[in-house]
Amino acid sequence: SQTIHQWPATLVQPVGSPLSLECTVEGTSNPNLYWYRQAAGRGLQLLFYSVGIGQISSEVPQNLSASRPQDRQFILSSKKLLLSDSGFYLCAWRPPGQPYGYTFGSGTRLTVV
Amino acid sequence: AQTVTQSQPEMSVQEAETVTLSCTYDTSESDYYLFWYKQPPSRQMILVIRQEAYKQQNATENRFSVNFQKAAKSFSLKISDSQLGDAAMYFCAYRSAFASGTYKYIFGTGTRLKVLA
Questions:
Q1: Can you tell me the distance from the alpha carbon of B98 to that of B30, in angstroms, rounded to the nearest whole number?
Q2: How many angstroms separate the CA atoms of A80 and B25, rounded?
Q3: DSSP class of residue B71?
Q4: Which residue, among A44, A51, A89, A104, would best test binding to B if mutated, counting the most B CBs under 10 Å from its CB?
Q5: What averages of pLDDT result for each successive group of 10 residues across chain A (113 residues)?
Q6: A76: closest CA of chain B, how far (Å)
Q7: Radius of gyration for the alpha carbons in chain A, expressed in angstroms and rounded
Q8: Tell me, what's the pLDDT at A95?
Q9: Is the pLDDT of residue B98 over 90?
């Protein structure tokens, strides 16, 4: 069966520290992968998506970056966190060719202090 | 650009009663998909129901049904026989049918549903 794993579940980081959030998908190949952020009182905002290894598209210019070093691995990073980076980060995947139906990971709650 | 609006930040419903969550959207496209997602306290996003814009028939999934009014750009979710497990944040989402492979979703800000015992 296909599963998506996201970690860590919770993270508290000081301003200016680096960030690395990881998302992996099992049981499928060549998935489309997405990073979303949910800020307090706001809807989900698409940050990055990837249709293949090394292929990253950014939706919002910001302090974050993403990488896809392997087919089923998607990493969200930052060199120096800002207070405004706090939020709930969700990874999602979609099988290629399926027109709808994301499957979301369980999310990471990031608090920058 | 497309937008999705959920004007009800919070709703309450008595257990076993029916509640309707509102969603409006704005688009100039003729073909698209609409979704309702549920986010319980566990934070796991779960797809509740979807509607293809080209279909006139309203989608139904067990106790969940939608009222899709394409001309009015309205997409409300009706939950019948509400249960305590329905308590969650509900997000309305839009996806263009012409997404050029990205399949980007546009989400509303959510409605928190409380179910009262």
A1: 10
A2: 36
A3: T
A4: A44
A5: 88 97 92 89 85 88 90 95 93 78 88 96
A6: 18
A7: 13
A8: 76
A9: no
Neighbours of B72 (CB within 10 A): 9
Roughly how many angstroms between the first and final C-alpha of chain B, as a whole number? 41
Contact between A78 and A18 under an 8 Å Cβ cutoff? The reply is: yes
Interchain pair A90, B45: CB under 8 A: yes
Show residues of chain A in contact with B110, CB under 8 Å: 43
Q: Residue B31 and residue A48: Cα distance in Å, rounded?
A: 24
CA distances from A21 to A28, A54, B43 (A): 21, 17, 17
Separation in Å, CA of A43 to nearest CA in chain B: 4
Q: Chain A residues with CB-CB distance to B under 8 A?
A: 32, 41-46, 49, 51, 57, 59, 88, 90, 92, 94, 99-102, 104, 106-107, 109
Strand-pair category, B19-21 with B64-69: unpaired
User: In chain B, what residues touch A99 (CB-CB under 8 Å)?
Assistant: 33, 97, 103
User: Contact A47/A36 with Cβ under 8 angstroms?
Assistant: yes
Phi/psi region, residue B3 (left: phi>0; alpha: psi -120 to 50; beta: rest), is beta
According to DSSP, the residues that pair with B33 across neighbouring strands are B52, B95
Q: How many residues does chain B have?
A: 117
